[in-house]
Specification:
Layout lengths: L5 H29 L13 E6 L9 E10 L4 E14 L2 H4 L10 E13 L6 E10 L3 E10 L5 H16 L5 H12 L1 E2 L4 E2 L3 E8 L4 H26 L6 H20 L2 H8 L4 H4 L11
Antiparallel strand pairs: 1-2, 2-3, 3-4, 4-5, 5-6, 6-9, 7-8
């Protein structure tokens, strides 16, 4: 096990999330270049990056910031954000009660990557992925990935889960079933009595006592995502779709938005810690409907 200081760990994690951002953006732009179906007469989509800094916040020592990478109105991606951030400051007394280790000392550091993709085609699944490293008087990794298809496809769902299971199994044979169950329970919309999507994995509070191993698993989650999800996009991106399928997609997006605004802990964490509102709410779809 590498003998790293906590500052070394913060830097290594932040560097990885930045590198993963670059890999994913390149992968998605390659999809835009290769698309030959509907909207292929449009210019290939490209990410626009916008930096932000965490100033004028409620806590007494706000610091850090992030970079949003957003693509809109592409050939394949209607809206996709791949955001990174590294922030530090002090939790409010009320919020500190809910964060491990913050009741002893309200200072915190958080770095991570967050991705949400909403697609032009209702036949291409939307997706969410994020991984993060958080430090209070304790430290841990968290994150995961889950598939959100307006028109679920059994083969896509099976392949997505298989890729995540392989990533989990490389590190701990108990991870996949535990984190799949956690994902199913977390991404559930109680007032609609249904799951948000087709699931995946979700983990939090990961601190096994071996930081290198936990970091390696977190890297593998990101790398595995960047292998399987582009493959699913390419599988369906040239298929045509009907107006009825588009309507189904828009109504599904309403469900997705309801979860993110009402139940998602990441949204709450970002808003409660003075994060960039545009970056936090980039997960919302560009267009949605409610029945």
């Amino acid at each position: 096990m590498t003998d790293l200081t906590i500052e070394d760990k913060k830097q290594k994690a932040a560097d990885w999330f930045r590198d993963l951002r670059d890999q994913i953006c390149a992968s998605f732009e390659s999809i835009e270049d290769d698309h030959t179906g509907r909207f292929s007469d449009r210019p290939a989509g490209r990410f626009e990056r916008k930096a932000w800094d965490r100033t004028n916040q409620a806590d007494d020592k706000p610091g850090g910031g992030g970079v949003m990478s957003i693509m809109r109105n592409g050939r394949v991606f209607e809206k996709v954000g791949v955001n990174i951030s590294s922030v530090h400051g002090t939790f409010t007394p009320e919020f500190a009660k809910n964060i491990p280790g913050a009741d002893e000392d309200p200072r915190f550091f958080a770095t991570g990557i967050s991705l949400v993709a909403h697609m032009n085609s209702p036949r291409v699944p939307a997706v969410h992925m994020n991984t993060r490293f958080i430090v209070t008087t304790k430290s841990w990794f968290g994150g995961g990935a889950d598939l959100n298809a307006p028109l679920p496809n059994a083969e896509d769902t099976a392949d997505f889960h298989a890729a995540l299971k392989e990533a989990c199994d490389r590190h701990n044979p108990s991870y996949y079933e535990k984190y799949k169950k956690w994902c199913d329970e977390y991404f559930y919309v109680p007032h609609r009595n249904r799951a948000r999507g087709e699931g995946g994995i979700f983990y939090d509070g990961l601190n096994s006592g071996d930081w290198d191993a936990d970091f390696a698993f977190t890297r593998d989650v990101g790398t595995s995502f960047n292998e399987i999800y582009p493959a699913l996009v390419r599988r369906h991106m040239s298929e045509d779709w009907t107006d009825e399928e588009r309507e189904t997609q828009l109504v599904y997006r309403g469900l997705y938005a309801e979860f993110n605004l009402v139940y998602d802990r990441g949204t709450t964490f970002g808003l409660k810690t003075g994060g960039n509102v545009e970056a936090i709410l980039m997960s919302l779809p560009p267009e949605a409907k409610w029945p």
